Amino acid sequence: MSKFHISTTVNGEAVEYLCDPKQTLLDVLRDELNLTGSKEGCSSGDCGACSVTLDGRLVCSCLVLGVEMQGRSVETIENMTSDEKLHPLQQKFLEAAALQCGFCTPGFLVAAKALLEKNPNPTESEARYWLAENLCRCTGYDKIIRAVLETAADMRGSK
Amino acid sequence: MSGFQYEAPATVDAAVGLLAGAKGNARVLAGGTDLLVQLRTGAAKPDLVVDIKRIGELRQISGTAAGGFVIGAAAPGAEIGEHKELAKAWPGVVEGMELIGSTQIQGRATPGGNLCNASPAGDCTPGLVAAGAIAVIAGPNGRREVAVEQVPVSPGKTSLAKGEFVVAIKLPPRAKNSGDAYLRMIPRTEMDIAIVGAAVNLTLDASGTCTQARVSLGAVAPTVLLVDAAAKALIGTKVDDAALAKLAAAASAACKPIDDKRGTIEYRTKVAGVLARRAAIIARDRARSNA
After folding, report:
1. B43: burial class by Cβ within 10 Å (0-12, 13-18, 19+)?
2. What is the reported pTM?
3. CA B10 from chain center: how many Å?
4. Which residues pair with B215 in a beta bridge?
5. How would you list the strands of the sheet with A51-54, edge to edge?
6. How far, in Å, CA of B214 to CA of B179, rounded?
7. ipTM > 0.90 for the complex
8. Fewer CB within 10 Å, N or C, chain B?
9. B37 and A44: CB-CB below 8 Å?
């Protein structure tokens, strides 16, 4: 089957790629665009390791086809730093030891950033529900949730 | 994933043409949260995938002049949850939709997809059935409208003919003193598939007597059920304890569930009555506060 020529926006930059209909957005990001920050955990939308925002909505990139991306806009973990400076969530995850093996971390960071953009002052319950699909097999979640809530408080304080 | 042809038509007519003309198996792609998993596992091996998200009208959620709503088949749960008027008029429909999966799934999953995936455990469908929602179906012979409960016919199968697909779901205008609610039972605390779902939609008159009711159960039969006997238990009553007990008994009596490690027949049957009763209380209290 012939490949599709897709013109889209990735992390604010115009990008073109060729892809087969059976390639997911995650496949395209990792294999065609060499953006390997988004991870493949389950490939069934259960683990959140491949989380990205698509036209501003948090989604699993494993549940989006690469061919769907024509004219759309995706943001990945690679867009989280600005001018080589860590996002406050990234800094806090380091300080609070909110990661161990790190495989789930890009997904958590992308999802948590989307949460704080929508709701700068989430309750613990809201944060836990928002991040319920992001699975971590190391930390037991408490450190992650604390890091998200502390970052939210810091970001509110600095405004 | 095996190969398939991908099309993203811009109009309903073009989508119908593609689906009707497909050689072999064609599948509609809305949010993709079920379809992509089925493609990955090989449970679905379509020759053609028709993405309906480029059709503008299918992404809209709009109120009608009469006070109803039209939810385009490609509108995701996240947008439904953010639609304040819809959530105010039909909280049970919206809470059913919002129970599906995670934040990430809500960014893509649609009520039309939940209906057409035809799982008996789909969390959005019972609320739609209880609401008296109508599926607008486009096909080679134009458009037709059917009650949503007529769409699924067995697990994974729908009544849609070749070339047909759901373009929108219509919710009727809301009478005063009406309320709806959806509750489900899952073995885990979150992110799980219902072993029982119960939706109740009712209207009260000025004296608090129930004048209209619809009760729907999920995950206790091969399709989502509309349980007339359970609705009859409420109509003409003040939705008091005696009526609620009859409702619960009627709901349990309607169950023909599967028996598995997630929920036995006995457990699902009992819980269907419990949840129907609790959902009716929530719907009643919402109706009382919607004067």
Report:
1. exposed
2. 0.95
3. 26
4. B200
5. A13-19, A4-10, A73-75, A51-54, A57-60
6. 11
7. yes
8. C
9. yes
